[in-house]
Structures are given as C-alpha cells and as structure tokens.
Design a protein that fits this description.
Pfam families: AcetylCoA_hyd_C (PF13336), AcetylCoA_hydro (PF02550). Pathway: Lipid metabolism; butanoate metabolism. It is found in: Cytoplasm. The protein is of the alpha/beta class. It has two domains: 178 residues, 3-Layer(aba) Sandwich (Glutaconate Coenzyme A-transferase), CATH 3.40.1080; 251 residues, Glutaconate Coenzyme A-transferase, CATH 3.40.1080.20. The protein is built from 18 helices and 26 strands. The chain has a seven-stranded parallel beta sheet with strand order 4-3-2-1-5-7-9. A six-stranded mixed beta sheet has the order 11-10-16-21-25-26, with helices on both faces. A three-stranded mixed beta sheet has the order 18-17-24, with no helix packed on it. The longest helix has 11 residues. It is globular.
Amino acid sequence: MHITRLYNDKKKTADEAVKMVKSGDWVDYGFAMNMPQCLDAALAKRCDTLYGVNIRGALAIFPLEIIECENAQNAFTYNSWHFSAYERRCHDQGKCYYIPMLYRNLPSYYRNGLTVDVAMISVSAMDSHGYFNFSLTNSATSAILETAKIIILEVNPALPIVNTGAEGFIHISEVDAIVENGDGKLAMLASGTPTETDLMIANQILPEITDGATIQLGIGTMPNTVGKLIAQSDLKHLGMHTEMLVDAYLDMFQSGKLTNKAKNIHRGIGLWTFCLGSEALYQWVEHNPSVASYPVNYTNDPDIMKQIERLTTINNCVEVDIYGQVCSESAGTRQISGTGGQLDFVTGGYLSRGGKSFVCFSATYRTKSGELKSRIVPTLSPGGIVTDPRTQIQNLVTEFGTASLAGKSTWERAEAIIAIAHPDLRESLIKDAENMKIWRRTQKIAF
C-alpha cells in the first residue's frame, strides 16, 4: 500500500467532501478540539439544499457555521453532549439541544446503537506509516469513527501529535475523504483568575491531599485553583489521572510536584482523555511520553479508578440541597453545561483505597439586583438536574468548611451541610430542615 498515493486519491476540498452529507443524515463533529472548522463552514454553505440534518458535537470552542448561517434551523439541528459557553448561549436562543450522558458511557452509546451517517473529525497530520493522531481529544473518537458509515478527516497541522495508550489514531485505509485545513488554529482556554473565595475553598482542600496522591481536576476555575496551589505547596510525588488535562497539571509538573512515580498502576505516566488550555500546555503534551491519552471509557471507569491508590478528585457544582443532592449542570430548567464525568470521578475517588472525592462551590452568589443568595438550598431548584445523587457524595466544600457525608443519616447530613452555608443564611435553612423532618431539635442548640 502506497500511503502517499492513497492520501492524494482521498484528498478533497471541503466543498467536495460535504457533498457526501444527505438530508436526514446524522453527522458527528466529535468533541472539543477535534470538531472541524473547514468542513463546518462548507456544510453551512449547503444550508439551502439540505433539510433535517442532525449534528452531534460537544464543548464547541469556536462558533459553528451550521448554527450561525441564515435559515440554519430548517437544514440543521445541532445537539451537544456537554455545553461550552458558546453552546449555552445557543441553547438559550433555541439553536442548540442537550444530549444527557454519563461521560464514561459515551463510547458505548455509539457502539450500541447510535447512527452516524457521516463523521467529520479534525486530526493531526498523517505520519509516515499512514496514521492520523486524534491529538487533543481521544474521548469517544474511535467509537464514533467505528460507527460511522462515511469518515471525513480534516487535517489540521497545528494539532500536536500526542502519546496515546489506546484508541488514539486511525489509518488512512479506513478513511473516505481527507480535507486539509492549512490555516488551522488551536483554540485556547484561559484558566481564569481565582477569586478570594476560590482561594479560600482551595485552601480547605489542600491539607486533605497527601504525598503520592493521584489528582483529578474537573473543569472550571475552582478546581484549577486547587491545582495551582498544589504547584506552590510542599506536596511530593503526585500523579495524574483525569478526563480533562488543564494548565494546572503543567504548573504541577514544572514545579516538580507531578512525577507520576508513586502511582501503583501506569507508574510514571499521567492519563487524560481530552486537553484544553494554553499554547504552552499543547506544546507540553506533544510527543511527551510521560503523559498519555486514553478513551473516556477507560479514564472515567470507576473500576479502573478503584485500583489507583490515593486518588483525589476535585470538581465543582452549581447548587446543593440539604439532602446532599448535587446539581452541577443546570440553573433550574436552564441547561448550562452537562453531567460530563463528574459522577464518574465522584464515584472513583471514593472507591480508591485512601482516595477522596471533593465537590466544591462558593456558599453564595449575588443576583443581578445584588441580593445575596445561598447555593445551599432546602431542595434543588424546580427543574434542577441531579448530577450526583446523595448516595455518592463523600465531601462537600465551601469557603466555610467541609461537610463529610458518606454513611450519614439525613439529619446528620443536614447539620453538616448547613454548617458550611453562609452564617447569615443558616437559620433559614434550619427552619427548612425542621419542616422537612430532618433536623434534630437537640442538635439545634449545639449548632
């Protein structure tokens, strides 16, 4: 097989390639950094000739032309597994729909029944053996391409080639068409500037982390803040096992804290399934043998996590009720992100020998009118999604302390959770707990 000849035979312009899409098709754009740009723009130009095309994607970092083009909703329906800020705005405008998922199950959704008529995935340049690397997004990419009837790759030479432990590449012989994105750019994700509250919460968690722990950080400023404080701490010999690779891990590596040498499995190697961050982060993962991408059904599998000693998982949320139910993805009925892998890691951290799981959040927020509101509520807001059931929560953290919930009764939970609420708002929560029959009157005096 002459791979150069095969490559040239399959190379098309974006306009030529998207002619493979028919009305009524299910088209898959992949996830985050492997969502296509040229192919998206070319497909949008077919807006007036197509109808009923359903498109799946997730964490879109740049605007999608199939959403922005005129009369888009007659031709295309865009559906996301996990909202970025852009997709959230589109959802608010009725231009995007959410697909509920548990992230570790995403590959099985495809392999066990989802239809993919055409997959359009952005990949790195082909190597000398004819393979295209999935680069910054392993996730469920292999499962999507295995399921697809037609595979179109958008080659973006800006995408780094990364070390992969499994399912991180595809061979040219398996591809139907190739489109070159010569002007390909990489989206950057700013880590955000931590607030004073973020730092207070991070400082609650830091003493709970031990030397030799393996760290998972969820998406958002608050978990990233914990990682940056770890980089400045005296902790040693830390490991990485995460779904999302963010800049805080690079900070930990550069400060000598992240070595992966104390891990009892995958010793010496940090595992991740998708990467979003700075240019420096993308340069760090390129051809780096000490970090490896794996499919999400491996990184997020609690059965894998329970084999990792001292796994410490750190995530954030939107709202918590006094039963211990956690909402991390919606504000009432308004979808703002997604379930993602939070429940995967909440479960995995608890199952790990010596492991710990933390869900952190600021105790309050202010409305547009300036009113102080509690993120700890009697029951979740109407329509609020239970991302983590009360049965799986180990530790909740605010700037006012940590509530350890595993194995505790409803009144013990109520007491522990109210104790980390804003002091000015606790009495109201106690009255709610009393009305809900989950408050012990004898404890009220002690409280």
